[in-house]
Amino acid sequence: MTTIAIENPSQTGAADDAQLNASFARQPILNRDGMLCGYEIKVRAPDLPAGAEPDAASATGRAPDSTADADALPGRAPDPAQRVVRAIIRGLIQSNVRGALTGHPAYVDVSREMLFDDSIQHLPADRFMLELSPLIEVDEALIARIVQLHGRRYRFVLDEVTQPNETFAKLLPYAEVVKIDFTHASRALLPKLTSVLKSAGKLLIALGIDAQADFEMAHELGFDRFQGYFFARPQTSMTRHVSAPRHALLNLLQLLAGEPTVAQLEAELKLNPVLVMHLMKLANSSGLAVGHKVSTLREAINATGTNRIARWTQLLLYADGRKVALEDDPLLQLAATRARFMELAIERLPEAGRDEADAAFLTGVFSFVDAVFGGSLESTLNVLTLSRPIQAGILHRQGVLGLLLTVVEALERAAWDEVSSLCARLQPLTVEEIALLGLEAGAWAGVADRSAEGLERIED
């Protein structure tokens, strides 16, 4: 659970603030090369205490005192809306959010209340991009506050732009980035709009890119960044640099499903140069160090073990064929995060053991394997000879595996109401714990290539 830390427990309202829990999900942002370059952090605000209503100052988005933190005023507690704002900000700077960003910048929606609260300055300006809603009330006070924060190196994003309007015109001079909503913007207007904004030096993000055709159009128009899940669709297999021939990858996975000899594994791995590269790196990592540098493939196999190789191969199935850092590969990161989330989540459920955790991991890994191989998902799963519960979970969302897969997909979309509804069938899991497990899984996926820690944690 994302519990908000309290700096001074004796302070008025601190005990109640300790019960305010914000939840967070992340959505990938890709660059023109199709690599991860940032995440939008989607926030589920904590519920206000029963009967609490924001006061007049909060309703206008103006701080009670422009130079002092309201908490510091004698005998004055922050109003409920202000406490929610600070709960969100305190949650954003906690280690679980920072870990899930895996070194990438964060884009986060900010309200008037957040902008006018001085606690926003606890967000590192070099790591957070502040997104302004097209519905935000723009007046002289807001512009002055944006200018003040800009002077402290905070950067602003115009969010969900569909067409130029009065709010857009007033905020554009202060924005470094513009997000254009592809799902609602007029396609006829896009060429002129993007041309004008590029000429003005704005960095452009195409929002809602869930289809390959939309990505190709936005790329052709000159967009710099792309937000959406187009990369996890089967069509993207035509544009990805597949890390090894399809039959070689499938042969290796099928071989690992049995009890291969070292000689058999060595011969098969030699057909997968990207796997060999990462296996050598893994074998020489601190977590698996054998006392000397591993220099041959056979030594790497012996040092790593077939179980770890099997797990690693399942993830590297999604790796881009280019020699890029795995924490920047969106498809691999999505697969690894889903797999780890499902493994962590099922361990919280009653009567779940090692076999159930392994099945949950496999379900997450292969939930969109058609994005790599194309063709039907069912035919690919049959080739992989996965168990019936795993196939039923992936193809028909049946059983607890299907339920966990559904909830992690809802979390990826930040569909909080759907997550909450599903939690009623996943007791004792709560929305807050689901969100926290998602962040933990994302952090694990982001460091898997830098040490053996992640793989050792899977095998524990």
Task: Note the main attributes of this structure.
460 residues, disordered N terminus, alpha/beta, 23 helices, Hypothetical protein af1432, EAL_sf, eight-stranded mixed β-barrel, TIM Barrel, 2 domains, globular, 10% strand
Task: Give an overview of the whole structure.
It is a single chain. The chain is of the alpha/beta class and 460 residues long. The protein has two domains: 14-228, EAL domain (TIM Barrel), CATH 3.20.20.450; 241-460, Orthogonal Bundle (Hypothetical protein af1432). It contains 23 helices and eight strands. Helix 5 (112-116) links the parallel strand 3 and strand 4 (128-132). It is globular, with a radius of gyration of 24 Å. It starts with 13 loop residues before the first helix and ends with a helix. The relative contact order is 0.10.
In short:
This protein is of the alpha/beta class. Helix content is 47%, strand content 10%. It has two domains: 215 residues, TIM Barrel (Alpha-Beta Barrel); 220 residues, Hypothetical protein af1432, CATH 1.10.3210.
